[in-house]
Give the backbone structure.
Amino acid sequence: MGHDHDHHGPREDADRRWLSLALALIVGFMAVEVVVGLLVGSLALLSDAAHMLSDAAAIALALFATRLAARPPSGGYTFGLKRAEILSAQANGLTLLLLSVWIIYEAVNRLVSPPPVGGGAVLATALVGVAVNLVAVWAMGKANRASLNIEGAFQHVLTDLFAFVAAAVAGLVVLLTGFDRADAIASLVVAALMIRSGVQLVRDSGRIFMEAAPSGMDPATLGRELSGVPGVVELHDLHVWQVTSGYPALSAHVLVDREGDCHAVRAAIETRLRERWEIGHTTLQVDHCEDDPHCVDSHGAAYRAAG
């Protein structure tokens, strides 16, 4: 049985610095936006502020989850707390979806009965918001976005950048034409972007919780390839999943021919998995055919050597 412990830990210190910079920018400007939004009665700015609050919470949660994930295994948590990052990503996705529902409700009300909006103040505040979010997006882009946790916080901030662009356009339209409904329309655009990002985060984190194969990896293709390793007669009970983002793992039961070298076959499979599939954490049960012809409760297809 082979165990190759290749842990794909994120660059915790660097990531925390970039996340902390983005958090400081978001919190500072959020306070300004709430005040201006209330003074001029802009839903676009207030919805942006609500989104910025969720941004701040998302980044803070990402920082906390990164610290938890970096802790070594202890007690009954044999993989440590690496999936805390996935919990964080899922929470971020759900928050985006919930906020989008509130924004849609408010925007529809304002389309029906639009209140007066201070277009100039909205435009000025939104343009500053674009600049602030550009810096925040740049900072978070420096972090390890291969982590679904950090990607979740990044999507919050990126969506907020688009929201400020929409708010700036709405402010300009109101300023030039007096069309107050532009503010609500901009909010609906923001809500659509939030739904898109939220659905993607919930779906990707859900795949990890359900222990699906990594996105883009076909277990059947993998099984057929491994069954072609010299000495393999059959491979079954193949499982491939992600402990957390960027940390794939695999287990399988491998049968070799009567004269085969179990250790050599196992080493060959591990090399193939590491070099071609970037899977470094493996658990392989390797037996001769006559010793253990099949598992008591095998799952999935059995893959046999050609010929």
User: Anything to note?
Assistant: The first helix runs from residue 12 to 40. The first strand starts at residue 2 and ends at 3. The CA atoms of residues 30 and 53 lie 7 Å apart. Strands lie at 2-3, 232-244, 247-256, 281-288, 303-304.
